[in-house]
């Protein structure tokens, strides 16, 4: 029996630990790997030889995976490390270090749980393994609240984030309605290139509340003048207007509304901030009404108290399926979810080649956005609704959620 290493990378989600638990539970049932190691802080934990013996932790803590499923963020920690091209001198040197560690711990499979940038790492390591005829299998398990990975109906973590966003928008509306004054509230939601998260705000609407009345996604050009006109028109009929905007909205020339466009991360992504604040300033100056902006930011990434049971279950199942993929000899693949056509919501889990997924962005279909570019259509509501269903039972202590001890991440 050989061993495996599991790592997590990128931004946290409510459900990423459920995928880790699914893989560990599947191995406990099928006894495929002798030991399951967890690399601390993503691929950097492998480069620095910082591993946890997860098999030992499970043997000492019988309810470990049950607690893990309901613990948000990342039990193994994360990183934002861009692996150099393995065909470059530096990339080849680093990949050799990684595979030497695989040899040291007798590794059969490496599982990387993460989003698009993590799948870039899976792609590079799998190509290096193939080029050097290594038997180590490299497999990706998706997670990202952005829901922007290709070849999958949706990604683990998105359903819970969507539920949190819809809940928050509904509560913001309740707060706004209590005052008999004209007001505009702008809610900025994560989404640099894909507007899935912002689109989820549509689920906040009820028969008695149309908020958010306006929804703007980065898939279509943002017309600031039209936004002001639409808001002014709505204020003539009702007191309180709530606007949901993606942080990545940009005009027809590609200019972000964000106050900060110049800073970029290691992967070349623009570090956006201040979109809601910028729109708040314009609305206040032109409409002369009470105006405020709210940035959900990291709150939507790890709100386990508002998790979707469907999201946690599917995330766990994808982790379990990754073990099956390894047992079948697959490598250079990412686990995927496919919606089965029918009247009731059903899915199946499979895998797709990583070179068809890494470094690609799955955007909101334009047909799901209205012609004015300020709302989404019924197709979006039908797509989103099943993903937020179900409420998990959390572990509580002294009135607060009791999550697993993360002291091993505190340095």
UniProtKB/TrEMBL annotation:
One of its GO terms (biological process) is fructose 6-phosphate metabolic process. Keywords: Cytoplasm, Glycolysis, Kinase, Magnesium, Metal-binding, Transferase. GO terms for cellular component: cytoplasm. It is found in: Cytoplasm. The keyword Endoplasmic reticulum does not apply. Pfam families: PFK. Its cofactor is Mg(2+). Its EC number is 2.7.1.90. The record marks 117 as: Important for catalytic activity and substrate specificity. One of its GO terms (molecular function) is metal ion binding. Its main location: cytoplasm. The active site is at 146 (proton acceptor). HAMAP family: Phosphofructokinase_II_B2. NCBIfam families: PRK14072.1. This is Pyrophosphate--fructose 6-phosphate 1-phosphotransferase. It comes from Shuttleworthella satelles DSM 14600.
């Amino acid at each position: 029996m050989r061993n495996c290493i599991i790592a997590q990378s990128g931004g946290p989600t409510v459900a990423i630990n459920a995928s880790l638990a699914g893989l560990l539970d599947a191995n406990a049932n099928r006894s495929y790997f002798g030991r399951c190691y967890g690399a601390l802080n993503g691929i950097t934990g492998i480069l620095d030889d910082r591993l946890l013996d997860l098999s030992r932790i499970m043997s000492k803590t019988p309810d470990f995976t049950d607690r893990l499923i309901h613990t948000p963020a990342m039990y193994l920690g994360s990183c934002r490390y861009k692996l150099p091209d393995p065909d470059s001198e530096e990339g080849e040197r680093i990949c050799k270090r990684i595979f030497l560690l695989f040899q040291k711990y007798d590794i059969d499979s490496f599982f990387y749980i993460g989003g698009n940038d993590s799948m870039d790492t899976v792609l590079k390591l799998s190509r290096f393994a193939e080029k050097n005829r290594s038997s180590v299998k490299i497999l990706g398990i998706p997670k990202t609240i952005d829901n922007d990975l290709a070849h999958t109906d949706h990604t683990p973590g998105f359903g819970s984030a969507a539920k949190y966003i819809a809940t928050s928008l509904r509560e913001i509306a309740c707060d706004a309605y209590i005052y008999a004054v004209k007001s505009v509230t702008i809610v900025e939601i994560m989404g640099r290139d894909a507007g899935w998260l912002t689109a989820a705000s549509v689920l906040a609407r009820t028969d008695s509340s149309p908020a958010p009345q306006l929804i703007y996604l980065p898939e279509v050009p943002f017309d600031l003048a039209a936004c002001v006109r639409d808001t002014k028109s709505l204020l003539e009929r009702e007191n309180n207007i709530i606007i949901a905007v993606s942080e990545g909205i940009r005009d027809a020339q590609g200019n972000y509304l964000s106050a900060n466009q110049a800073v970029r991360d290691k992967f070349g992504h623009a570090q956006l901030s201040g979109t809601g604040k910028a729109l708040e300033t314009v609305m206040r100056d032109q409409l002369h009404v009470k105006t405020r902006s709210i940035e959900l930011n990291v709150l939507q990434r790890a709100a386990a108290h508002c998790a979707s049971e469907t999201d946690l279950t599917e995330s766990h199942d994808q982790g379990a399926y990754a073990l099956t993929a390894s047992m079948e000899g697959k490598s250079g693949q990412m686990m995927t979810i496919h919606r089965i056509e029918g009247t009731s919501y059903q899915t199946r889990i499979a895998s797709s080649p990583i070179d068809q997924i890494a470094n690609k962005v799955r955007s909101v279909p334009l047909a799901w956005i209205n012609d004015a570019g300020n709302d989404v259509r019924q197709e979006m509501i039908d797509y989103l609704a099943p993903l937020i269903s179900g409420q998990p039972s959390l572990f509580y202590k002294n009135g607060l959620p009791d999550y697993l001890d993360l002291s091993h991440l505190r340095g």
